[in-house]
Design a protein that fits this description.
Helix content: 40-55%
Order of helices and strands: HHEHEEEEEEHHE
CATH architecture of the largest domain: 2-Layer Sandwich
Strand content: 15-25%
Radius of gyration: 52 Å
Shape: rod-shaped
Number of strands: 8
Strand order of the largest sheet: 3-2-7-1-8
CATH class of the largest domain: Alpha Beta
Number of domains: 2
Length: 242
């Protein structure tokens, strides 16, 4: 074997040995961490979602408490408002006792008349029409309430004659007729001084002896209306009409 071949063989062996040594000494490359990073990110998202859900649940609970409180307050306000409306309606219909400063007017037959033994047309009698005229005068005077012989007079009240008696709210009343009202006494007196006021009654007071007197009262009590109500046209009220 020639020297050149020997040299080539030796060099080849050395080169192969170096390659093998380098291969054995090189460390194995680490595996990629991508799946672990993704798992950690998902865990973080789940934690954030749970935390956010807890915050939202807390807010929902707080809002529910506020809604319940508001509903209770509104319910109390509605009840109070309905009660005030009911009381106002009852007062306007004469269904509550009323008191205040006012006056009393007394109407009575002529002292020379026996109501039970004379014709209805006797001018010395106090007629139902006289009482109606007086009530209309008081209403135009804007009094707060009227009662006659303990009968509360409202818009639905009837004042009629039955024979020689007067019927108010389906109750038969006998003279003297005491008309009680809550209102301004002084302005009414000025009104009564007008000759054009209650002309027929004033004439019979002067000519036929009908007794008419008026007196101021610091405290007038009007009873509750106890007559009937006509229900033909009554409808249930709604929230829009109250």
């Amino acid at each position: 074997m020639s020297n050149s071949i020997k040299i080539i063989s030796v060099c080849t062996g050395i080169f192969v040995g170096v390659l093998m040594t380098v291969q054995f000494r090189t460390s194995t490359p680490a595996a990629s961490s991508y799946p672990l990073d993704q798992l950690e990110a998902q865990k973080q998202l789940i934690k954030e979602y749970i935390d956010e859900e807890a915050v939202l649940k807390s807010r929902i609970s707080l809002l529910r408490d506020k809604i319940d409180t508001s509903l209770k307050n509104n319910e109390a306000l509605i009840k109070t408002s309905n009660l005030e409306t009911l009381n106002r309606l009852k007062a306007s219909m004469g269904l509550t006792l009323k008191s205040g400063e006012g006056f009393t007017i007394e109407l009575n037959d002529s002292p020379f008349i026996d109501r039970d033994n004379i014709p209805k047309e006797e001018p010395g009698l106090v007629y139902a029409a006289d009482i109606r005229d007086l009530v209309n005068l008081l209403r135009s005077h804007k009094v707060e309430g009227i009662a006659i012989n303990g009968q509360r007079v409202i818009a639905a009240s009837t004042i009629t004659s039955v024979g020689n008696t007067v019927m108010i709210n389906n109750s038969h009343l006998a003279p003297p007729f005491t008309v009680s009202a809550i209102g301004d006494f002084d302005s009414l007196m000025l009104r009564l001084q007008d000759p054009a006021t209650l002309t027929d009654l004033q004439k019979r007071v002067t000519e036929n002896g009908i007794r008419f007197s008026i007196q101021k009262s610091p405290y007038v009590i009007l009873p509750v209306y106890n007559g009937l109500f006509h229900t033909n046209f009554i409808q249930a009220a709604t929230n829009e009409t109250i």
